[in-house]
């Protein structure tokens, strides 16, 4: 593991025994605990408004609104919703409220190499391969906009067949044109082409397969014999290519040394069965076969791999001999016993050697409807998809199964999927649970955010919901007497911009961190890289190791930087489509600030104190406990926070209260008066509540305060990663990986 720091960190969630727990001062059904009414004043509650100024302390990336008056200057405004969102997130942390706007949609993942749990969840076992565990079919969209899948006919006993590219090339019918090939088969290896060398190696392996079958038959060693199981363990545990790849690729005489080690390991491991040396011939055959496969692996991993291929699906005819595909030809060809199918492949993933053959649609098959929830999960995963291809936009579109503006499909899309049987009203039916463009599609993690965030009390109402309002997620589940929706008791006016307004366009690489990066979003457990993936299960359904459930680090915040940093990484062209153009307003170049108001209705003193505290943390009575150096506090608004933009301070905060008397003066002339006490007095009321309640005492106030202070990262810190130096840090830490996302051995070091 390599510990790194990032532009962001986390504030812990309030928890008991490691499980998040939230504070609910109000209740939906209990009349005595329902939140205040909007239509009348309640005794002891306060109404009025807060006026404030916002002072910019760094360049800001904002979308300002403009209004024009005849003959007058243009006026500029900042949407009140931007301030509303900032203060709501602060209130949620300070009041132990449920983090309402965390994207807790289902997270999907794919983990082919070393992904034992992933393969287990796909259903791949010693007895069932990928082609039996995953189904294939054709995705349609009907004239109502609904998506559905028509299953493909099986090919032998498989839902689809993986065909090695070498075998397709050797069929000599040019069914696979150059643009769709994974390898450059004309590349020279000595005096022979890759095709010639690989064909010879493949032929030798096929001969050895026959010899090994004969030896097993003569020695009466079936697949379930202890000898077979012991041999399999040696190959899969210590000599699988993904484990020894580096030695094969980079060590001189790596294959020879590994072959010798393999033979010795077999001899030692199976000594109890080899008392009269009757297995030596079988050992020799197995090790020789492994060496030939390793030589093919070495060639496949070499420079003959094509960096990109064009995704395709092509109509073909294929022929079977028994259960094996013996020929694939053009759809128009006259193949004896030929059947219609589709030859298919997507982009080139480094370890890919084969193409997929899918049978035609099943006649009279029951269509499988794609649920809205599955479409949403897939679409969110698609939006996060990053490819290594030079033709990113084109290749990425290949995976966009559920296009928002697609017309009714006349040409179906090849898809791979899985189902489960569900009983409904006494009948069983197949329900679609996963779908993808490749058979190694993305599937749900064992642990999802909605569970790791902790259960939300269905009857309780936290402070954030009571102040900012809420609507029921599903009112059909609520009884009539339940409070299903509640209007906000706060109203944020548009924020007027005063001073000289002149923006400058600037380009940014605006990366969006995702919670699927478990090594960043999950607490380290000391046992390796934290992950949302569960442990591998044994055959009886028990986990093969004791492992605690993952735990979220908390609520994300961006570090406040002392100064801005470069917004475009070295090596990225300024015309790249990866960059976004934004308006920047720099207070060092022009003089401006903001003025706004927050109107409130029927707040308790503590609620008003909570809102004021969310605006200015220095109002907290004991705030210096967490900031003994007296550093200034900041909030971040707008975009590009990771680059040091958006730093502001709330100032000139004044509370004006609505007069409750019925006099003419209070009703007409001066309905609002400045509060007779300072804002800190209201904050103290909330602070006392925090000290008296066990859950509110669990608010991570120390980290919250520190999130408002500047955090300086030295230029010499090789382990600090921001969006503009990602590639440099990769190189400094010796990373070989390319493409988007974090390297798999990086974990967040909390500052």
General description of the model:
The protein has 751 residues and is α+β, with helices and mostly antiparallel strands. 26% of the residues lie in helices and 23% in strands. Strands 6, 8, 9, 27, 28, 32, 33, 34 and 35 form a nine-stranded antiparallel β-sheet that branches. The chain has a five-stranded antiparallel β-sheet with strand order 20-12-11-21-22. Strand 18 and strand 19 (354-359) form a beta hairpin. The two termini are 17 Å apart.
Brief synopsis:
The chain is built from 19 helices and 36 strands. It is an alpha+beta fold and 751 residues long. The strands form eleven sheets. Strands 6, 8, 9, 27, 28, 32, 33, 34 and 35 form a nine-stranded antiparallel sheet that branches.
């Amino acid at each position: 593991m390599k510990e790194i720091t990032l532009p962001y960190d986390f504030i812990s969630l309030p928890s008991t025994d490691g499980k998040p727990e939230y504070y609910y001062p109000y209740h939906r059904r209990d009349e005595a605990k329902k939140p205040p009414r909007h239509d009348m004043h309640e005794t002891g509650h306060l109404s009025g408004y807060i006026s404030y100024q916002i002072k910019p302390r760094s360049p800001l990336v904002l979308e300002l609104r403009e209004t024009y008056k005849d003959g007058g200057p243009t006026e500029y405004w900042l949407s009140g919703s931007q301030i509303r969102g900032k203060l709501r997130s602060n209130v949620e942390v300070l009041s132990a409220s449920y983090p309402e706007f965390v994207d807790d949609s289902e997270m999907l993942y794919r983990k082919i190499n070393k992904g034992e749990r992933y393969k287990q969840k796909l259903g791949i076992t010693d007895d069932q391969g990928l082609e039996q565990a995953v189904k294939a079919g054709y995705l349609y969209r009907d004239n109502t906009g609904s998506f559905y899948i028509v299953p493909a006919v099986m090919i032998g006993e498989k839902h689809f067949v993986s065909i090695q590219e070498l075998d397709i090339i050797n069929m000599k019918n040019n069914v696979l044109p150059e643009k769709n090939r994974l390898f450059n088969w004309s590349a020279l290896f000595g005096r022979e082409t890759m095709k010639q060398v690989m064909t010879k190696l493949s032929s030798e392996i096929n001969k050895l397969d026959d010899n090994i079958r004969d030896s097993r038959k003569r020695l009466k060693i079936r697949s379930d014999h202890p000898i077979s199981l012991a041999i399999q363990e040696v190959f899969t545990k210590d000599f699988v290519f993904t484990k020894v790849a580096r030695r094969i690729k980079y060590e001189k005489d790596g294959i020879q040394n590994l072959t010798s080690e393999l033979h010795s390991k077999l001899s030692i491991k199976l000594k109890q069965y080899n008392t009269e040396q009757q297995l030596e011939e079988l050992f020799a055959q197995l090790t020789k076969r492994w060496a030939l496969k390793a030589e093919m692996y070495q060639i496949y991993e070499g420079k003959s791999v094509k960096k990109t291929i064009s995704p395709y699906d092509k109509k073909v005819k294929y022929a079977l001999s028994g259960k094996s595909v013996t020929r694939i030809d053009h759809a128009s060809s006259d193949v004896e016993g030929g059947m219609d199918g589709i030859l298919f492949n997507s982009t080139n993933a480094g370890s890919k050697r084969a193409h997929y053959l899918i049978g035609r649609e099943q006649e009279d098959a029951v269509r499988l409807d794609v649920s809205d929830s599955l479409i949403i999960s897939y679409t969110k995963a698609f939006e996060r998809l990053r490819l290594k291809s030079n033709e990113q936009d084109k290749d990425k579109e290949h995976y966009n199964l559920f296009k928002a503006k697609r017309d009714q499909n006349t040409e179906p899309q090849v898809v791979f999927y899985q189902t489960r049987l569900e009983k409904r009203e006494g009948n069983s039916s197949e329900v679609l649970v996963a779908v993808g463009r490749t058979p190694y599609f993305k599937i749900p993690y064992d642990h999802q955010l909605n569970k790791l965030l902790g259960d939300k009390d269905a009857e309780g109402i936290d402070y954030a919901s009571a102040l900012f309002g809420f609507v029921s997620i599903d009112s059909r589940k609520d009884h009539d007497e339940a409070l299903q929706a509640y209007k906000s008791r706060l109203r944020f006016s548009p924020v007027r911009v005063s001073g000289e307004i002149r923006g400058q366009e600037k380009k940014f690489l605006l990366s969006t961190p995702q919670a699927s990066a478990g090594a960043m979003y999950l607490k380290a457990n000391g046992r390796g890289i934290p992950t949302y993936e569960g442990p591998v299960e044994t055959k009886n359904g028990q986990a093969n190791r004791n492992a605690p459930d993952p735990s979220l680090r908390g609520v994300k915040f961006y570090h406040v930087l002392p100064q801005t940093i470069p917004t475009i990484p070295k090596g990225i062209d300024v015309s790249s489509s990866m960059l976004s153009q934004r308006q920047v307003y720099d207070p060092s170049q022009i003089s401006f600030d903001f003025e706004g108001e927050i109107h409130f209705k029927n707040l308790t003193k503590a609620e008003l104190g909570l809102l004021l505290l969310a605006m200015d943390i220095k109002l907290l009575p004991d705030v210096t406990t967490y900031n003994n150096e007296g550093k200034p506090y900041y909030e971040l608004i707008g975009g590009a926070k990771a680059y040091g933009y958006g730093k502001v301070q709330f100032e000139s905060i004044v509370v004006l209260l609505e007069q409750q008397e019925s006099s003419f003066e209070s009703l007409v002339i001066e309905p609002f008066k400045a509060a007779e006490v300072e804002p800190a007095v209201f904050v103290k009321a909330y602070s006392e509540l925090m000290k008296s309640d066990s859950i509110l005492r669990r608010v991570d106030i120390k980290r919250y305060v520190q999130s408002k202070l500047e955090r300086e990262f030295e230029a010499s810190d090789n382990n600090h990663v921001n969006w503009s130096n990602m590639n440099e840090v990769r190189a400094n830490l010796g990373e070989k990986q390319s493409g988007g996302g974090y390297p798999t051995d990086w974990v967040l070091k909390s500052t």
